[in-house]
Write a structure and sequence with these properties.
- This protein is of the alpha+beta class.
- The protein is built from 18 helices and 23 strands.
- It starts with 14 loop residues before the first helix and ends with a strand.
- Bound molecules: glutamic acid (GLU).
- Glutamic acid binds next to strand 12 and strand 13.
Length: 586
């Protein structure tokens, strides 16, 4: 049983505590104690997942309801997305919120265009490539996360404000109100959040954050409330999205980051005032009879998934079974090749030249697919030379940790506009710093910690005002007539890429319904060996895959896939049975 948490900081910000906290935190981060893992999967009955007009699929029913209410009142998919996101930011506070960032992929049915609103966090103007190094030694990730160095300027509100200015039909204030009301009145503590709070040892180091979250568990009624967030939302509702970047909220953010126990607390008010979300063309490519559009850089998800599909197109995947070792081998090999290119070429497009067209060139991908031996894992998957580029020294990233600080939801409105929105604090509970009810992100740890690898500038080196590379992969599929087929995305750090690929292949190649495709066992290969989801049918393939030369790990893989597919004149949704979300519509 839990006991009441202390009301005073456990450790003060002095030299002694630094020496105690550091190793302690590294140890706890290494233990990866923050994901509660899966409970018994529950699949929503199909009748509840069908709609004629509009639909929302998200990680919590209250968020879905908020979105549906907006759609019933004639709102655009963007309006609904704002309401959904605000409610998720309250309920899924460890994963997402206005102290973080995200990408909103929008298919505008009237114009027939697909764009990405980029609300990725930015590094402060004072940031330098060695932000996460001291005397040439990389900071341990466990220390870098809860530090002043990790917090990027939050981009989510700016992004939503811009999308709303372009497409909104319902007032900004009305869209923030459901979340403000809920954060004030509260709702029964979601069991998943309870587990997360109880299992996250790192919260012990942050008295205010711990007190805030644990205090709610220990109360008599175990209700989740966040009146500070409600007040912040009401302020933003009244003053508009810019009010996060100027005035008292901006001042509170800068002050909180400056008071970080360690790291470079160099965020200034000017960094917030200068933040701009950006509208970018989605990255689109054909796959068999469809056109697929994903997030543009700094998301690596769009290019990496489209490369994988561009290679898979050279194999008869529709005739292969998802549970055959040959299929898993093939998906793993295209993934290794695509991740090699991802690590080598993708970063912030405003600072680095990214050869998007060359990376997606059909001849290039055919040549890459030709490297695959259907019977044997390749010795080493190297980056290629798209457009005849001379290969630089290979950039191998540090092993990517199992993050889950992200949420994805999908929306379809009555006019056929589609929104795929993935947002993130990076790690669960972000930097562990809380201000005005917001969890502040640790997104800057998505930059490379070693910018000196390779001959040129590392594409994902820290730089002033730069956006870190992301794996968030909102995706939209269209048919030959440009009509919507599917909208989907997931949480899961760099594993998102594998989760989304599996779902796309499930629907498009294997003819599964969106829910079945989401429920398929997860399989990921990020250049670190194949990861198979534990307690699933494909975990049994491990030995055969090892015989083909693969390293194989079996582990829990809690994706958070939420998607919607078109069926006839209506829609069918799918919500990840590994979480507690639902897909509903009218
Ligand atoms: N920060 C990650 C990214 O942008 C997402 C984190 C997660 O999903 O856990 O790729």
């Amino acid at each position: 049983m839990l006991t009441n948490g202390p009301t005073k900081p456990l450790l003060h910000n002095g030299p002694v505590s630094r020496w105690i906290i550091g190793p302690l935190f590294v140890l706890m981060a290494a233990c990866g104690a923050t994901d509660p893992g899966t409970t018994e999967p529950v699949t929503q009955p199909e009748a509840e997942r069908l709609a004629e007009r509009h639909m929302v699929s998200a990680a919590h029913p209250a968020a879905v309801e908020a979105g549906l209410e907006v759609l019933r009142n004639g709102g655009h998919a963007v309006d609904a997305a704002i309401a959904v996101q605000m409610v998720l930011g309250f309920i899924e506070a460890p994963e997402t919120g206005i102290g973080g960032g995200g990408f909103l992929l929008l298919h505008d049915a009237t114009r027939g265009t697909t764009h990405m609103y980029d609300g990725r966090e930015t590094a402060p103007a004072a940031a330098t490539p060695d932000r996460f190094r001291t005397f040439g030694i990389e900071h341990p990730l466990g220390l870098a996360i809860p530090s002043g160095s990790s917090v990027g300027v939050p981009g989510l509100i700016s992004m939503l404000g811009k999308a709303h200015a372009d497409h909104g039909r319902i007032s900004w204030a009305e869209l923030l109100e459901p979340a403000a009301r809920l954060a004030e009145s509260g709702l029964p503590m979601p069991p998943r959040l309870r587990q997360q709070i109880e299992s996250d040892w790192s919260l012990r180091l942050f008295a205010d954050t711990r007190q805030f979250f644990r205090g709610q568990l220990d109360g008599a009624d175990s209700t989740l409330r966040n009146p500070e967030l409600a007040a912040t939302l009401r302020h933003l509702a009244l003053e508009g999205p810019d009010a996060l970047y100027h005035g008292p909220v901006a001042e509170a953010i800068v002050e909180r980051v400056s008071s970080a126990r360690w790291g470079k607390a160099d965020m200034q008010l000017s960094d917030l005032a200068n933040y701009r979300s950006v509208v970018r063309d989605a990255v689109c490519a054909p796959y068999r009879e469809w056109t697929l559009c994903g997030g543009a850089p700094p998301s690596s998800g769009g290019i990496t998934i489209l490369q994988m599909l561009g290679m898979l197109e050279h194999f008869d995947l529709p005739q292969m079974s998802p549970e055959d070792p040959a299929t898993v081998h093939l998906i793993a090999e295209v993934s290794r090749l695509a991740f090699a290119d991802r690590n080598h070429y993708i970063g912030d497009p405003d600072s680095v030249e990214i050869p998007i067209e060359d990376l997606l060139d059909r001849d290039y991908l055919s040549q890459r697919a030709g490297l695959i031996n259907p019977l044997r894992a390749m010795e080493h998957a190297r980056p290629g030379e798209p457009g005849g580029r001379i290969e630089l020294t290979e950039l191998r990233p540090r092993s990517e940790p199992p993050e889950h600080g992200t949420s994805h939801f999908s929306v379809v409105d009555g006019d056929g506009n589609l929104v795929a929105l993935t947002s993130s604090n990076e790690a669960p509970f972000g930097s562990r710093m809380l201000v005005n009810g917001m969890v502040l992100n640790n997104q800057l740890t998505d930059f490379t910690f070693n910018p000196h690898l390779g001959q040129g500038a590392h594409p994902n080196a820290v730089g002033p005002g730069k956006r870190p590379r992301s794996s968030m992969s909102p995706f939209i599929v269209l048919d030959q007539a440009g009509e919507p087929v599917l909208v989907v995305g997931s949480r899961g750090g760099s594993r998102i890429i594998g989760y989304v690929l599996k779902t796309l292949v499930g629907v498009l190649d294997w003819g599964l319904d969106i829910q079945e495709a989401i429920a398929l066992p997860n399989l990921v290969e990020r250049g670190e060996g194949i990861e198979l989801e534990e307690n699933t049918s494909i975990a049994r393939l491990a030995d055969s895959l090892r015989e083909m030369g693969h390293e194989v790990k079996i582990l829990p893989m809690t994706s958070g896939l939420h998607g919607i597919e078109r069926i006839g004149n209506g829609w069918r949704g799918g919500a990840d049975p590994r979480l507690d979300g639902v897909a509903r519509g009218d």
